[in-house]
């Protein structure tokens, strides 16, 4: 019997990854709390609790690869991630599958200069420390030959979502001709990652032994400031660029009193108050991958709102 690929989490990355795997002829099980996912003859969608080892084992006892695309509420990472990560590690150890984790750049913490995979993980705030510890735990298990693990790290996603800084906060307002207010400085270069490029890299590293035991940066386009991205979106929409400004820190703090997600985002402002640029040369050279063309990234973003 063919060993299935198990995708945990049905968010943007999880759904994209499941479709890529299914279209390549793989049998895929996508598991989430909702039990929903893409429709394809090679995809089975089921409900599961990623923090329960028993639930995970019930998905499949012999998966080829387990892809951790889980995305707990942003302001609850400190309490939600550790039991999920521990359960997934135990599941992978029991099933002898390869573990591929979808991660980000938070673990590095504030850094002046370009970010590369060999930087130490020195996060100074809770969410970054949580993500760093997840990799430390997986790497320790990998080094002790208990599991085979790798991790992919992307920068801020640019996609149609309420969690993307350039999604629900920007595109609908541009279509309506409204002013745009963004969190953090709007004039600092920033790397933006398309979730579909995250999914492509996850699929590749799950099958390539060269990737195991190391983190990999997702191929992404050249950095752009927030206002440059908004200008590109407006151009693709064929609308005039409205007034674009940054939410004053005092106002953001005030909003954070009532909104726990915004309150947590205050801790990540360093990523926008100075250049935040990721280097992906190692991934490109090793696997021959390149990012989706920027024009396509923007067109795919706006098409979701037009539809």
SSE diagram, text form:
Blueprint: E1 5-8, H1 12-23, E2 28-32, E3 43-47, H2 53-59, E4 65-68, H3 77-95, E5 98-104, H4 126-143, E6 148-154, E7 156-157, H5 171-175, E8 180-182, E9 192-193, H6 195-205, E10 215-217, H7 226-237, E11 244-246, H8 249-258, H9 260-265, H10 270-273, H11 281-287, H12 294-306
Parallel strand pairs: 1-2, 1-4, 2-3, 4-5, 5-6, 6-10, 7-9, 8-11
Helix pairs in contact: 1-6, 2-3, 3-4, 7-12
Short description:
It contains twelve helices and eleven strands.
Rg measurement, Å: 19 Å
CATH topology of one domain: Rossmann fold
Quickly name the level 1 CATH class of one domain: Alpha Beta
Instruction: Please outline the major beta sheet.
Output: 7 strands, parallel
CATH homologous superfamily designation of one domain: NAD(P)-binding Rossmann-like Domain
CATH architecture descriptor name of one domain: 3-Layer(aba) Sandwich
Which runs of at least 5 residues are low in confidence (pLDDT < 50)?
none
Secondary structure class reads alpha/beta
Task: Provide keyphrases for this structure.
seven-stranded parallel β-sheet; 307 residues; 12 helices; alpha/beta; two-stranded parallel sheet
Structure description:
The longest helix has 19 residues, at 77-95. The protein has a domain at 5-155 and 194-219 and 278-291: 3-Layer(aba) Sandwich (Rossmann fold). It has helices at residues 12-23, 53-59, 77-95, 126-143, 171-175, 195-205, 226-237, 249-258, 260-265, 270-273, 281-287, 294-306; strands spanning 5-8, 28-32, 43-47, 65-68, 98-104, 148-154, 156-157, 180-182, 192-193, 215-217, 244-246. The mean pLDDT is 94. By secondary structure, it is an alpha/beta fold. Strand 4, helix 3 and strand 5 form a beta-alpha-beta unit.
């Amino acid at each position: 019997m063919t060993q299935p690929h198990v995708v945990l989490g049905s968010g943007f990355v999880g759904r994209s990854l499941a479709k890529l795997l299914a279209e390549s002829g793989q049998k895929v099980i996508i598991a989430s709390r909702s039990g929903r996912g893409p429709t394809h003859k090679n995809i089975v969608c089921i409900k599961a609790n990623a923090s329960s080892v028993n639930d995970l084992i019930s998905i499949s006892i012999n998966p080829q690869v387990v892809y951790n695309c889980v995305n707990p509420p942003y302001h609850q990472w400190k309490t939600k991630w550790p039991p999920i990560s521990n359960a997934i590690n135990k599941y992978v150890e029991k099933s002898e599958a390869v573990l591929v984790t979808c991660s980000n750049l938070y673990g590095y913490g504030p850094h002046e200069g370009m970010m590369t995979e060999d930087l130490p993980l020195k996060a100074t705030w809770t969410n970054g420390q949580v993500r760093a510890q997840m990799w430390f735990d997986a790497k320790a298990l990998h080094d002790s030959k208990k599991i085979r693990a790798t991790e992919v790290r992307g920068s801020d996603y640019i996609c149609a979502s309420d969690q993307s800084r350039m999604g629900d906060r920007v595109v609908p307002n541009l279509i309506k001709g409204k002013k745009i207010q963004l969190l953090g400085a709007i004039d600092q270069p920033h790397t933006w990652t398309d979730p579909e490029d995250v999914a492509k890299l996850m699929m590749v590293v799950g099958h390539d032994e060269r990737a195991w035991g190391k983190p990999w940066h997702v191929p992404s386009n050249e950095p752009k400031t927030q206002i440059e991205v908004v200008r590109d979106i407006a151009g693709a929409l064929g609308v005039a660029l409205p007034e674009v400004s940054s939410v004053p820190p005092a106002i953001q703090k005030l909003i954070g009193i009532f909104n726990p997600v915004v309150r947590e985002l205050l801790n990540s402002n360093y990523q926008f108050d100075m250049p935040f640029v990721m280097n992906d040369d190692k991934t490109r050279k090793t696997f021959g991958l390149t990012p989706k063309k920027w024009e396509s990234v923007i067109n795919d973003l706006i098409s979701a709102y037009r539809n």
